[in-house]
Amino acid sequence: MSSSDSVSPDREPRVGLDPLVSREPILGTFVGAAALAFPLGALLGAAEAAKLIAQGHARYASDGLGAVALASASSAVIALVLSTPCALVARSLWGRAAPRVAAPSACAGLGAALGVAAFLASDLIGLSLIVPVALAATCCVVLVRELLGWWPLVTRAPLWSAIAAGVVLGTSVLAWRLPSGRAEGPAANGKPNVVLLSIDTLRADRLGCYGGPVETPSLDALARDGVLFEQSISQANITGPSHTSMLTGLYPAEHGVLANAQPIPHRTRTWVEELGAQGYETAGFVSGFTLVDAASGLAERFDHYDDHLLVWRWMPEVCTRLRLVKDVIRWLNVRNARPERPQRPDRPAGETIDAVEAWLTERAKVRRPYALFVHFYDPHVPYHPPAPFDRKYDAVWKDEPFVDWYALETAQRAAWVRDPTKLAHMLALHHGEISYADQQAGRLIELLRARGDFDDTLIVVTSDHGEELGEHQVFFDHGATLYDTELHVPLIVKWPKELGFPGGTRVASQVRTLDIAPTVYEAAGLQPSYTLSGASLTELVGPAAGTTPADRPAYSFSDLPGNMSSYDLDARAIALRQAGRKLIWNSELWLDCERVPERWQLFDLARDSAETRDLLAPERAPKSAAEDEHVGKMREALLYWIELSADQAGPRELSEEAREGLRSTGYF
Question: How confident is the model at residue 566 (pLDDT cuts 50, 70, 90)?
C-alpha cells in the first residue's frame, strides 16, 4: 500500500462531510427518525387531549381516555409519516465535523415532531402546510445542532422517560376527576321512573289520537293506557326556551332562556338535577343541535348526556375538538351531502333510541330509579324520513331528489308552494317524519316493557312547539307567530299503575307544558327547592279533579333577536290563551326597510280556531262592556310579562307583588 493510500487517524476529514453522516447508514437514518418521531408525536397528541380535558370538554372519563388514545395515535402516525421526508433533508445537509453532535436521524425525528407541534398549536397551519413546516423545522434543528451540539441532552433516556411519565400521570389524574356518569346520592328505591319524550315540531292536530291525518299507532296506544290532554299549550315557539320550561316549570321570562343557543343560567334549577340529588340516575338523549350542551348548557344537569351528532358514533364528542379531527370533518362536510357528512345538525330518532337502549342495557342490574329526557328532532325541517315513510303519504312522487327546504332561496320556496303537487309532497314528507317518530316512540315504550318498567314509570310525551304548514301564509317553519299552529302541542301522560288513574281518559281543559315539571315532582314525592309557575296535572285526573279550576291560563313567548336588512330586529311577542280566547302582543320591529308598529290581536278560538279574524281590528272592535272588561284584564296581565321579559340579561324571579298583581287579574 502506498503512502498516498494510507489514512492517518489524525487527518482532517474532507470538507463538508459530517463524520456522523458517513457512519450512520441510510436505513438507520430512516429507522432512527421514525423511532424518535413516533413517541414524540404520541406525547404531543396526549398533551393536546390533556389540554381539552383540563378545559372541561370531556364530559366523562371514558370520553377523556378516548380522546387521549385518538389524539396520541393520530399525532404519532402523522409524525411517523413526516419522518421520511425529514430524514432525506437531514442527510442531504452538510455539517461541520464535531465529536458530539446529533445524527441525521435525531434531527429528522425532532423536525417531524416540531411540525406536528406547529400543526396542533396553530390554525394557520393546515394539513397542506405540515410537510414544508416539518422540513423547515428539520433545517432549524440541524442549524441548532451545529451551533450548540446538544446531542447529549437528546440521548438522556431518563429525562425523556420522566417527561413521558409526567404526561401520562397528569392525563390520568384529569380523567379520574371526570364524572363517571353515575348518580350520587341516597338510594331512592320505591320511587317511580320518569321518562319525558319530546318530539320536536309536532302539532297536536296531526296525531291520530287527536283526530289528525297521520297514522300514529304507538302514541295512540299510549293514550289508551294514559291520559290525553286535548288543549296543551307550549310556552315558546322555539326549541330552547320551550324545553327549559318543561324542565323547570317556569316561564321563559323566569328561567332566563329567551332564545335558542342561549344556555340555561346556572342559578336556574331543573327537576332533573333535583331528582338526581335524591338518588335518581338521570340521563338525557337529544337529537338536534339546539339542545347540544354547547348551545343549551344542559349536560351538567344530567349524570349522562348524549348529544352526539357525528356519523362516527364510536368517536367521543370531545374528539371533535382535536385539531386533526376538526380538519377532517371540515374537509368531509364540504365535499359530502347530508346525511353522509360526518357532522350533522341532527340525528334520526332511531339512533337516539339506540343510545337509550345501550344506556338501559348498561344499568340492567341496577335497580335505582331513573329519569330520562329523550328528544326526537323528527319531524323538524328538513323533512327527510327514511324508507318506507318517505313514500307512505305520497306514493305518486317518484325519484326526484331530496329537497332541503332551508337550502332553498326565497324565489324557489315561492315556486314550490304555488305548485299543488310539490306542496302536497312536502306535507306528505312531514307526515312521514311523524309516523317515523311514532315508530321510534314505540321502540322506547317496548324497551320499558321488556325491562318490566312500564307499569312503574311516569311517561310524558309532548312537543316543544308546532309548525306552520301554510296557515297564515307561513310554510314549513316556526318561530315567527304565536298562533295555535305553533303552540298547540300534544300531551299524553301515563302515570304509574299503582296510582290507579283510568287509562283512555281525555281532559278537555287547557294545560301548559310547564305543568310537566310539577307533575314529575309530585310523582317522585319531592318538593322543589324553588317556586313553580306550573301546577301538577294530577289535579285534573286524580280524586281532586273536580275541585280545581279547569282552565289554566297559558302565556307563550316568542323572541326574535338578530339583524335583518342591516336593521336590528329585537322583536318580541307574548300571548295569553284563556277561556277560549287568545290575546297577542307584538312589539314594534323592522320588517325589511319598514318599521312595523306595536300591535295587539284578539281571537275567539271557539268561533275562529284558525285565528284569521282579529277582534281588535278597527272593523271588529269589541262592542259590549263585558267584552271590553275581559279584554282589559287580559291586556293588564300581559303588561306584567312584557315588563318582566324586557331585560334579556338573565332569569327574572317574580316578586310577590307581581304575582299578586297577576292573581288579581285572574290570569295566574
Answer: very low
Domain containing 617 — which CATH number?
Answer: 3.30.1120
656: left (phi over 0), alpha (psi -120 to 50) or beta: alpha
SS (H, E, C) 110-137: HHHHHHHHHHHHCCCCCCCCHHHHHHHH
Contact 252, 258 (CB under 8 A): yes
What does the pLDDT look like over 253-263, one tens digit per residue? Answer: 899 898 888 89
Whole-angstrom Cα distance, residue 259 to residue 239? 8
Give the number of other Cβ atoms within 10 Å of residue 596's Cβ. Answer: 13
Query: Sign of torsion, CA 307 309 313 317?
Result: negative
Is pTM beyond 0.85? Reply is no
The boundaries of the domain holding residue 68 are 19-177
Residue 115 and residue 243 in one domain: no
Structure-derived torsion over alpha carbons of residues 500, 504, 510, 514, reported in degrees to the nearest 10: 60
- Helices 349-362, 420-450: axis angle to 10 degrees equals 10
pLDDT for 318: 83
Same domain, 130 and 57: yes
Q: What integer pLDDT is reported at residue 399 of this predicted model? A: 65
Cα–Cα–Cα angle for 645, 646, 648, rounded to 5 degrees: 80
CA trace torsion 534, 537, 538, 539 (10° rounding): 70
Does one domain contain both 496 and 645? no
Residues 92 and 225 in one domain: no
pLDDT tens-digit readout, 61-110: 888 888 999 999 999 999 999 999 999 988 887 554 444 456 888 889 99
Domains: count for the chain: 3
Sign of CA dihedral 341, 343, 348, 352: positive
Phi, psi of 127 (to 5 degrees): -65, -30
* C-beta atoms surrounding 308 within 10 Å: 21
The three three-digit cell numbers of residue 429, written as one number: 314528507
CATH (domain of 211): 3.40.720.10
Rounded CA-CA distance 277/557 in Å is 31
- Residue 635 main-chain phi, psi, to 5 deg: -65, -40
CA–CA separation, 138 vs 108, rounded Å?
A: 6
Helical (H) or strand (E) element with 555: strand 554-560
**Closest CA relative to residue 106, chosen from 83, 132, 85, 135:** 83
Report the pLDDT value the prediction gives residue 215, as an integer from 0 to 100.
96
Q: Which three cell numbers stand for residue 325?
A: 379531527
Burial 50-74 (b: 16+ CB within 10 A, else e): bebbeeebbbbbebbbbbbebbbeb
> Which secondary structure element, helix H or strand E, spans residue 246, and what is its range?
helix 239-248
The verdict on 452 and 586 lying in the same domain is no
Mean pLDDT of 268-291: 94
**Do residues 142 and 170 share a domain?**
yes
Element at 591 (helix H, strand E): strand 589-591
CA distances from 171 to 63, 72, 160, 167, 580 (A): 12, 12, 17, 6, 61
HEC profile for 266-277?
CCCCCHHHHHHH
Residue 347 and residue 349: Cα distance in Å, rounded? Answer: 6
Q: Give pLDDT tens digits for 505-554.
A: 999 999 999 999 999 999 999 999 999 999 999 989 866 666 555 789 99
DSSP 355-405: HHHHHHHHTTT--S-EEEEEEE-TTSSS--PPTTTTTTT-TT--SPPP--G
How far apart CA 588 and CA 662 sit, in angstroms, is 24
